[in-house]
Here is the input.
Amino acid sequence: MGTESKSQTIPIIDFSDQTMKPGTDTWLSASNVVRTSLENFGCFVANYDRVGKELCNSVVLQIEELFSLPLETKVQKTSNTDRPFHGYIGQVPWLPLYESLAIIDPLTMLGCQKSAQIMWSQGNDRFCEIMNEYSKLLGELDHIAKRMVFESYGVDMKICESLIESSNYLIRVMKYRRPDIDENDLGLQPHSDLTIVSVVHQLNNLNGLEIKMKNGDWVGVDASPSSFVVMAGDAFKVWSNGRIRSCEHRVIMNAKKTRYSTGLFSFGGKMMEIPEEFVNEEHPLRYKPTFDHYDYLRFYEKEKINETSSRIEAYFGIDLKPNTI
Here is the structure.
């Protein structure tokens, strides 16, 4: 499945440091590491001890209950919108180990309750309480990372707060079964996310997530209850006019038991714009300056362009060649 390299190390940032407050030297230093990590790797690893082992275990129990539901229940439509990739994914012949479900708007109790009422006719209060608590903690990481990126680039923080407030979120819970003897170990194919930011958690302490480096090598990320991988999605790359790198990643399923993970995904709830700070003589405009994030999802669903750069150029790219007569 490729070569795993330890020659490049994905930066690890301690978000549990109580002295790391906006305006402090610790915050500014961490902000610069976040920015350069997203530019060079498309991600960083966040140590965040607010999500403890007990909460992780509770989330696993709820996910196990969710995936034990009949298939006809899990495949039900979970949204009244036309947003692609917001429901059940599974039973894919070339990805037989993978199955996942989405909870829309999980940072609110109402969002969790709506999803629970679809899966369980009488709802599931315990499921809602645990998933909402867990999702809000992942949401804090998303918000901190975005604020640090804006501050490090010198972009108006009012724009950042507007982006956070208008963003839509879903949490995808993912299950990977162990491969049978005649199956390969590919849990999830190499890809970048269509998101602004993805916060990925290898939930039950089983490794499998790998990140692709610029040189083509793959680096595994060690799992732990307090370790989260914050990834830049395609929309963040476009927003930064190409400075940030979309994080290409995959899952290799070497575990001897079922592996669970989660991803909190953020999407632009209104038209997104490339800030003027990213456009100058040295960095001419590379993409459409204003874009509809959900239209990009619909484009991907229709065109099925899997290679990240090709897909971004096909939808967002502009012609930089001078006009000729």
Observations:
- DSSP finds nine helices and 13 strands in the chain.
- The CA atoms of residues 139 and 183 lie 36 Å apart.
- The first strand starts at residue 12 and ends at 14.
- The two ends are 50 Å apart (CA to CA).
